[in-house]
């Protein structure tokens, strides 16, 4: 029988892998970078990172908990719940605790900022529960990504409003990330009855849609600020286009979603170099 310490380490490892660590970490880090860039200060940035991190954990863990039976039927050996590495209750409790923590951490940035973030988290949970199986599957991603810069900026003293083009770019990026994320699993999703918009459109069309949306997000960030696009905007576009094309040339791999995360990093880098409103 393994020792308690070994079981504990295994459980922690399983929880880490069940939270969708790559996107969770990427979104949290990028939110922290954005908070630092707009002047939230060390304490404000820490609040943003903690709130976004808690929200990402809640959405990630609830996703694996809700999809455990489907993942098991699909033979997903990369899912700790599907292979019996973790009891479902532990993941459900972890998701609930993260959500409970997310509420005060979000509201600590102010009522309006906190509400913006909590709506985004609620959108992610709604995706897990129901919307991923409908033609509106892209809406939670668009809403959550669009509201993330609003959460960061509204928490500044005086609650300044972010520019509409910033929110629009975030929404386009989120929708593009959704299409890129589901591409490799389209066949399994269809077999399991998960018929979101990408599953209905098919792999080829969804790959093109992902590429267009990811590129459009950078275009909006490039042309949104007053004046003509500068060298940084053109550099961002030059970096984003090949990343976006990954959804077209390698739609059966995880490369499109990794490319979407890298495109998000490019967009944040461009955004922190421009005025947010």
UniProtKB/TrEMBL annotation:
Gene3D superfamilies the UniProt entry points to: UbiA prenyltransferase
Membrane topology summary: Multi-pass membrane protein
Keywords for this protein: Membrane, Transmembrane, Transmembrane helix
Main location as per UniProt: membrane
InterPro entries cross-referenced by the UniProt entry: UbiA_prenyltransferase, UbiA_sf
The keyword Transmembrane helix is annotated on this UniProt entry: yes
Membrane-spanning parts: 93-126, 138-157, 163-183, 204-225, 231-250, 257-276
Compartment(s) where it occurs, according to its Swiss-Prot or TrEMBL record: Membrane
Keyword check for Transmembrane helix: yes
Protein name: 4-hydroxybenzoate polyprenyltransferase
Annotated source species: Kitasatospora terrestris
Taxonomic lineage from the root: Bacteria, Bacillati, Actinomycetota, Actinomycetes, Kitasatosporales
